HxlR family transcriptional regulator (Labedaea rhizosphaerae), 304 residues
Amino acid sequence: MQRTNFGGMACSIARTLDVIGEPWSPLILRDVWVGLSRFEQLQADLGISRKVLTERLHHLVETGVLERRPYDNRPRYEYVLTEMGTELVDMLMVMTAWGDKWLAGTAGPPVLYRHHACGEISHVELICSHCGKPMHARDIGPLPGPGAAATA
Amino acid sequence: MQRTNFGGMACSIARTLDVIGEPWSPLILRDVWVGLSRFEQLQADLGISRKVLTERLHHLVETGVLERRPYDNRPRYEYVLTEMGTELVDMLMVMTAWGDKWLAGTAGPPVLYRHHACGEISHVELICSHCGKPMHARDIGPLPGPGAAATA
DNA sequence: TCTCAAGGTCTCTTAAAGGAACTTAGAAGG
DNA sequence: CCTTCTAAGTTCCTTTAAGAGACCTTGAGA
């Protein structure tokens, strides 16, 4: 399987996919987010091939989503979210909300989230950064931006 | 390449990936969202293999994200977003905001979005559905939900 | 009847994922 | 000082999905 590289496209969605679009990457991000930070933990939790896990972790470190750091005098490392990676979790939260709504069935969501600020179980909503009103697919229109011609 | 199926995991992120996690699927969703709705248009715009495009469109129709409908007496079809698919665009909006912030470089974002409600160019922000305050990775904690044991 | 175009299908090649065995570095025990 | 143990990979082989491009099918219109 050859796979087309999305990173060169003049599209932030394609570029983001170039970072976390590969199979397993979002689930690795999720695991690191909830506190599974070591190779063996990730491998055991996900059931992912060790080879692929190695490749994904390298890629996520290279792109700046994760940081690899030693936690012992022995050659032992753990992976932690960078600021860039922490903000990428926003995407996971939206995926969670969508999956909870459309794919959970009668059993209901497998995981709930409590918002520390209000103490309630809730989910994420999208608003406009400018006016604060809801912002969804039908509420916006695209127009060319400054980086429109970029190809690298 | 065998690929592990994520749909059976008790995780809404994994289940969502089962729907749009395959390579190209988010870009197909983006194109349909911005008005490219026909097979030839999608193929030409993305440069995707016709075989893979066929597979992805079938999968997106089967899972309920897209609807395939005739637009002519001849055997011609277009793909349109269902309500489920329209809500999935929320994920693309977050990916766009993240890519604009972290990957656009000095050239700036390739595409800007105007919010119809306020007329301003803006991006999406995440808030709590309950209290309306910002909600991000560090602001929430997971706990088991009703569907926690589901395996199908 | 011939041509044209949309929307696919078919076939072949290449490369990525799965799986499992093997390697390496350092600490700790005997 | 030699062996054992464990985390963190690496290597090798098989299977299967993506890429590329040729080919096919249906109905409309000249």
The radius of gyration of chain B is 18 Å. The longest strand of chain B covers residues 66-70. The helical segments of chain B are 12-20, 25-33, 39-46, 50-62, 83-102.
